[in-house]
Each structure stands twice: as C-alpha cells, then as structure tokens.
Amino acid sequence: MNFRKTLKINSLGHLEIGGADCVTLAKTFGTPLYVFDEEYIRTMMRVYRDTIEEEYGGNGLVLYASKAFSCTAMYAIAKSEQIGVDVVSGGELYTAMQADFPAANIYMHGNNKLPREISYALDCKVGTIVVDAFTEADLIEEEAAKRGMVQEVLIRINPGVEAHTHAYVQTAKPDSKFGFSVDSGAAEVITKYVLSKKHLRLKGYHCHIGSQIFEKQSFVLAVQKNLAFVAKIKQKLGFEASELNMGGGFGVWYAEGDAMLPPEGYRTYLSALIAAVKQNCAEYGLRLPRILIEPGRSIVGEAGVTLYTVGAVKEIAGLRKYVAIDGGMFDNPRYCLYQSKYTALLANRAAEPCTELVSLAGKCCESGDLIGVDMNLPEAHPGDLIAVLTTGAYNYSMASNYNRNFIPPAVLVKDGKGEYIIKPQTYADLVRNDVIPDRLK
Ligand code: LLP
Questions:
Q1: Which tens digit of pLDDT belongs to each residue from 233-267?
Q2: Quick check: 251 and 214 in contact, CB under 8 A?
Q3: Ligand 1 atom closest to residue 299's alpha carbon, by position in its atom list
Q4: What pLDDT is stored for residue 342 in this prediction?
C-alpha cells in the first residue's frame, strides 16, 4: 500500500505514526485511542499559509475549521503557526479562548447562532462574525450598540455551485439552509440590510461549497460567481468587498479510489483559487480582496489514526466475517452517517498480506454500528491491534457517549513520543450531570 509520510511499517512489522510505534502507544494509553501526528498538522497549516504568502503577497489568512477536530491543543498549534480559526459554536469559541487564541483571528460561523453565542462572541472580541440570517444581523447590531462598538462581519452567500461530493455535505445548492442565494437576489437584499446597520462593518462575503471535494474547478467556479456578484454590488450599491472567504472543502484520501496528495499537493487548490481571483478581479476592475480559506479535513484528517483492539470474531458461513473492535459508531459515526469508506490495517502485523474481506463491527447495540464493510485485512484474532486510517477529522468531533461508552482519549505524537491532548473519560464523567429527582429516590 502507498503510505503517507506520517505512516510507516517498522522492523518489528508494527505500524508507526509520526515515528511512534502503534503497539507501544496502545500499551501505554490503551484502546480505543485517537492518535494525531503533530508534524503532519503543522505541515498542512504551513502549506496553505505559505501559498498565500508566496502567491498572493500574504494578503489573506488561513482559518483552521476547528469543527473538524476541536480541543485546546489544536488551537495552540494553530496559534503557534500564526493562522486563524473558524469556530461554529459557543463551545468551540470557549475552547479556543481557553487556549489563549488571539480573538482577532477568530471567525464565528453558524446558520443559527444563538443570542447567547453572539453575546459571548462580542464579549470575547471575536474578529469577524459571518452573518447567516437577518435576525443575526439585528442581534449583532443590538449587542454591539450596547457595548459601544462596531463589529466586523461577512455575509454568507450561496453562489449555487454544486460540488461533486456526498449529498449530506453539499452546502451551496439552491436548496440549502446555509447562506443567501446570489441567484435569487437574497444576497443583495441582506447586503443592503447589513450596510444600513450602524454597528456592523461589512467587509465582504463568505461561501462554503461543500466538503471532501477533489475538483479544483468547483472552487474556480465559485470564485467566478462570487466576484461577479461583488462587481454587481459595487455597481448597484457602491460597496466593494475587501474580503472574500472561500470556506474549506479540500478532499483527503480515505481508501482506494481517493486521490492521495502529498501536503505540498494541496497548494494547487489554493493556487487555482488565487489565479481565479486575480483574473476575475482584473476583468471586473475590482481591487484584489483579502482571501481567506477554511480547511478542516485536509489539515487534520490524514494526521489521525484510531487504534482499536480486536475482541469477538464471528464468521457467518458463506456470508460474512465480523471482526468486532472495542470502539464503534460512538467514536466514529461516519460510516453510519455517510457510508464513508475507510482503510484498516493490522497494526501489530502490518507487513502481513491481506487475505480476507471483513466487516469491522463496533460494540454498540445496533446492527448498523460498523466502521466499514468488506475491508481488506490479514486474518485478525482477539487481541490484535487494528488501525483505522484518516480518522483525524470529524471523528472525535462527532463522537458521543452512546450506550454510555467512553469517548476515547486523544494522543498527539511528536518526534516518536505520544502525549495526551484529551484525557480518558471515567465512569464518573458519564454520570456527572445526571440527577435523580427526590420523588424517584
Ligand atoms: N467552513 C465552513 C463554513 C464549513 O461549514 C466547513 C465544513 C468547513 C469550513 C471545513 O470544511 P472541510 O475543509 O473540513 O471540508 N461531518 C462531515 C463534514 C461536515 C463539514 C461541514 N462544514 C463529515 O464527517 O464528512
């Protein structure tokens, strides 16, 4: 198999991530365990940051879309790489603030920001809020007026670009809960509305056309549509956007059939986007806007693996073999939600050839609790260590305590050594907020 730089098989036949032996990690920290390679995360952040620096004179900012994996250590890494972050809830914002993340470089998203989230964002002095509803514009205006300040905002628009990806993660179709449609005229109406607010300063527009996208052309098309809109608004309302946030969405490798790009390869997405901005601005006679992008999955997805221990193995003659692990949909719900494909390895016998097609089953009480079907593996026995690759994005962040299982801890590997960035849960954590009303005692 063609491996990422972060992964290798060592002389013991064990899988290594970021130079750390997965068998040792499993012994030290237990399983299930999320493992992240710090070097890979930093490399990805730098690739995007340096591309803006070198190809766009530094007139932009990379925002790590922290919904992909949010914990204090991730904000600390983003801070030290001098990039910004996108947060999408009071909880993500609080986590960023706990890591002393510079508020000016935080962009606040969400299609239905709660009044208390808006108020908290203003208290934190978040740099930019991305407006996605009229009511939000009203709320931000009210809260900013109360504090005697002016809040910088972007408006989320929907350029109507369909990216080729799984339907659940497409967000810029005409029928979407996100943004204001350019084609319907709604984007123009909200622009006028925001411009009329005394305590809002409109900088420009944001769009996000979807996730796990490999076609550069989708981003180029979105740039074209956005800048045509910017030019129209300049002509009609005299407002010229100074910022264009193109969202995230760059695809990653999960399994056979997906493109596998080296980190440097992601430069090409941004290069195509930058070239399209330059070309369209020249055509429309617009000033070059500050460009922002919000990669989440591509920064952290391939940086992560999840380690599991094999328990029950069940062969249903002539039908299927189930290899059950000590995790499941509670630490990775993506197969259940999107039928996502993954690659699994036997981390303690990683050099052995794959001889079987098995279904990797979780331990939850429902049949759909699978990490994948027809996965290629060597014959696995109880006690073997399974590594599921590319689990860094949207696994921990979508995990739950379903069946009162623990959300696994996470370890960050640097120079071959792992350290906790998220500690293990305990049974006490599971009942921490439970209350038995007196009448039930
Ligand atoms: N910016 C905005 C406004 C977004 O909504 C998203 C993702 C991103 C940036 C980051 O996109 P990325 O670079 O990670 O593709 N739970 C799904 C993914 C949902 C993505 C939602 N928005 C999954 O597990 O595939």
A1: 999 999 999 999 999 999 999 999 999 999 999 99
A2: yes
A3: 13
A4: 98
User: CA 12 to CA 17: how far, in whole Å?
Assistant: 14
Instruction: Look up residue 349 and give its amino acid.
Output: R
Q: How many CA atoms lie within 13 A of 164 on its CB side?
A: 5
CATH architecture of structural domain 38-300: Alpha-Beta Barrel (3.20)
| Residue 122 contacts residue 149 (beta carbons within 8 Å) | yes
pLDDT in tens, 24-43: 999 999 999 999 999 999 99
- Using the atom order of ligand 1, give the atom closest to the CA of residue 206: 3
Ligand 1, pocket-test mutation among 205, 211, 293, most atoms within 8 A of CB: 211
Q: What is the dihedral of CA 108, 111, 115, 116, to 10 degrees?
A: -50
| pLDDT, average across residues 314-320 | 94
pLDDT band (50, 70, 90) for residue 5:
confident
Q: State the Cα–Cα distance between residues 388 and 369, nearest whole angstrom.
A: 15
Pocket of ligand 1 (CB under 6 A): 65, 67-68, 86, 109, 169, 208, 211-212, 247-250, 294-298, 334, 393-394, 398
Query: Contact 310/79 with Cβ under 8 angstroms?
Result: no
Ramachandran sector of residue 257 (left: φ over 0; alpha: ψ -120 to 50; beta: rest): left
Query: Would you place residue 174 in the very low, low, confident or very high pLDDT band (cuts 50, 70, 90)?
Result: confident
Residues of the chain with CATH 2.40.37.10: 7-30+303-430
Among 62, 64, 67, which residue has the most ligand 1 atoms within 8 Å of its CB, making it the best to mutate?
67
Q: How far is the CA of 321 from the centre of ligand 1 (A)?
A: 33
Give me 94's structure tokens.
């609080």
Model pLDDT, residue 163? 80
Locate 138 and state its tokens.
């009203």
Range 7-30+303-430 classified under CATH 2.40.37.10: yes
